[in-house]
Amino acid sequence: MTFGTTKSTISSFLLICVVGTVAEATKKPHVVLILADDLGYNDVGYWGQNHGSAAKTPFLDSLAENGVRLENYYTHSVCSPTRGALMTGRNRIDIGLAHGIIHTTQIEGLPLDNVLLPEQLSNCGYNTQMIGKWHLGFSSSKYAPWNRGFHGFYGFLAGSENYWSKWLPMARHSNIGGVDFTDSTTGPTNETWGQYSAHVYASRARYVIQHHDQSKPLFLYLPLQTPHTPLGAPSHYYEPFKDIEDDDRMKYLSMVSVLDETVRNVTNYLKDAGMWEDTLLIFSTDNGGEVKHGGNNWPYRGTKNTLYEGGVKAVGFVHGKILGDLSPAQRVNRELIHVTDWYPTIMAAADCPYVSGNSRNKLYGLNQWGALRGERGSQRTEIVHTIDPMNRTSEIPDMRFGFNINVKAAICVRKWKLITGNPGHGGWYAPPESKDIFTKSGTRGSKNIQLFDLSVDPLEENEISNEHPTVVSELLERLAKYSLSAPPAINQNTDDNAHLSWTDGFVQPWLN
User: Per the residue annotation, which of 51, 135, 319, 338 is the catalytic one?
Assistant: First the structure.
C-alpha cells in the first residue's frame, strides 16, 4: 500500500497547526496575588541581609531573584486603603478611604459603585477565589467578598484576630466579640479552631488548586494574616531567632518565616497540579512595617500609617514564565509603580476586556505590563499618597495655592515629594537585633510643609521646601486639584450593637 498526501490532508494539517498555535497564544495565565500584612521593607532576606536584619526568607528571596524585584514600588500607608486600591484600581482618595481603615462594626464598606478586579476577571472566564483577610466592610452581605466577584471565600472579614482561635474582640482587650471565620460555601465556621491561620490558608489553597477545573484560568487572591498582630507563631519557628532580645522582634521574624514557608507551599501545590508554568505570581505587602510591633523599614524613615517612605515604600515582586526572557538588569525594576497599577496590569496580562460601564478613565492605576517585561519604562510619574481632611494640625485653615497645608497629605511627582500637615512618626528605626545600627529620632517640628528630593535623598533626611518655592507651589496646586474631585471619606459610623446579631457567636454581616 502506498500513502499519498492529498490537498485536503495538507489543509487539515495546516488548520490544526493554526488552531493549536492560536489556542496556545491566547491561553490565559493563572494569576496568584499574595498580600502580606504589615511586612516591612527590611523584613525580607534579600534586602535585610545588607541592612542589619535577621529576617530569613529564602523562598521569597529565590522567587524575587528569578522574577522581577520592584525597588520603586509603593502601596498606601495602611491596610484597608491598600486593599481597596488593589480591588478597584483606584486611589484611596477616590474610594472614600483617605482617612483610614474600615472598622469592624463600621456600617459602610468599600463603595458599591466600583467594579472590582475579581468581577472583571470572572467576566473574562476566570475562577476567582479568595483565601485570607478581607477588611473592606461586611455590615451587609452586599459588601462581602462573595458578592463582590469572588466565586469562593475562605477567611476572615475584619482586620485582625487571634491566629489560633479566630476570635475577634469588639475592641482591644474586650471580652465581647465573636469567631471571625467564614467559608462562603457553608457559612461561618469554627472548624479551624486551634489551627494556626497560615497553615489553614495554605491547606485551603491546596484544596482550591487540586479541585480547580484547568480548562479555566484561576485567579487566587491570597491576602495572608502574617505578620500582623497579635504576635505569635508555633514555638518551633522561634528557634532560629531565640538570641534576639527584643521579644516582639523575635516573634515577628518567626512569623515572617511562616510567611515564607506558606508561599513555598502554595507554589509547590501549583507545581504538583501542573499549573506553575502557566502562573503569574504577584507578591506585595499592604504597607510598611509597624515598628512598635516588631516590623522594620530601615534605612527608610517612618513606620506603618505614616507618609514617610517607611510607611509607603513596599516590598514587591513578580514571578512567572509569562514575563519572558529577562536580562539580569531587567530583573531589578526601578520604575515607579503603585499598588493601583495591579488592576489594569493584570487585565492586560490576562488579555481581558473591561466590563461595560467601567470606564478605564476611572482608574488611577496604569497598565505596567510592558514595564514589568522590560519592554518600556513606567507610565507613571506621580503618586498621591493621601489627602485626609479629617486629619489636621489646626482647625484654622492655612491656605497656600488653594490647598490647606494643615491637612495630612502627600504627593510625589518624579523626584519631588511634598508632605503637608502631620505625616506621623518620623524616626529612622534600626532593627533591634543589629548591634551596629542605631535609631535616629526625627521630627517635623512645627512645619506643615516638607519637601524632599528622593533622587538624592531617598531617606528623607534633608527638608528643602525653603530652597524650592516654585516646586512647592506647583505641588500644592496639584493637591488642591485632587482634593476638589475627591469624595468625602465614607461614613465611619459604627454599630455598637452589631455583636447582638452575630448568631451563635460568629462574626458575620448583621444588617441584611
Answer: 135
What is the pLDDT averaged over residues 441-470? 94
Q: Which residue has the cell 466592610?
A: 137
DSSP letter at 13 equals H
Containing H/E element for 262? helix 247-272
Q: 124 an active-site residue? A: no
Q: Tell me: pLDDT of 23 over 80.
A: no
Is pLDDT above 60 for 195?
yes
How many C-beta atoms lie closer than 10 Å to residue 434's C-beta?
Answer: 16
Contact 425, 303 (CB under 8 A): yes
* Cα dihedral value 314, 319, 324, 329, nearest 10: 50
Query: Using the 8-state DSSP alphabet, how is residue 102 labeled?
Result: P
Tell me which of 7 and 73 has the higher pLDDT. Answer: 73
pLDDT score of 238 more than 50: yes
For range 153-163, the mean pLDDT: 97
Catalytic position from the list 30, 51, 76, 79? 79
Active-site residue, 79 included: yes
Q: Using one digit for the tens of pLDDT, what is the confidence trace for 163-194? A: 999 999 876 556 678 999 999 999 999 999 99
Instruction: Enumerate the H helices of 109-245 as residue ranges.
Output: 117-123, 197-210
Residue that has been written with the C-alpha cell 496639584 in this structure: 478
Q: How large is the greatest C-alpha to C-alpha distance in the chain, in angstroms?
A: 99
Residues contacting residue 69 through CB under 8 Å, at least 6 positions apart: 46, 316, 317, 331, 332, 333
Exposure pattern of 319-332 as b/e (b: 16+ CB <10 Å)?
bbebbeebeeeebe
For residue 146, what is its C-alpha cell?
462573595
Average pLDDT, stretch 225-234?
Answer: 98
Work out the number of other CB atoms within 10 angstroms of the CB of residue 366: 21
- Which triple of cell numbers denotes residue 345? 496590569
User: Rounded to an integer, what distance in angstroms lies between the CA atom of residue 48 and that of residue 363?
Assistant: 34
